[in-house]
Amino acid sequence: VHPNVSQGCQGGCATCSDYNGCLSCKPRLFFVLERIGMKQIGVCLSSCPSGYYGTRYPDINKCAKCKADCDTCFTRNFCTKCKSGFYLYSGKCLEKCPDGLEANNHTMECTSIVHCETSEWSPWSPCMKKGKTCGFKRGNEVRVREIVQHPSARGNPCPATTESRKCIVQRKRCQKEGKGKKSREEKRKKSNKDESKETRQESKGRAARRQNREQRENNNKMQPKKRKAPNKEQDLAPVDTAH
Question: Where are the residues of the annotated region Disordered (predicted)?
Answer without folding.
Answer: 174-243
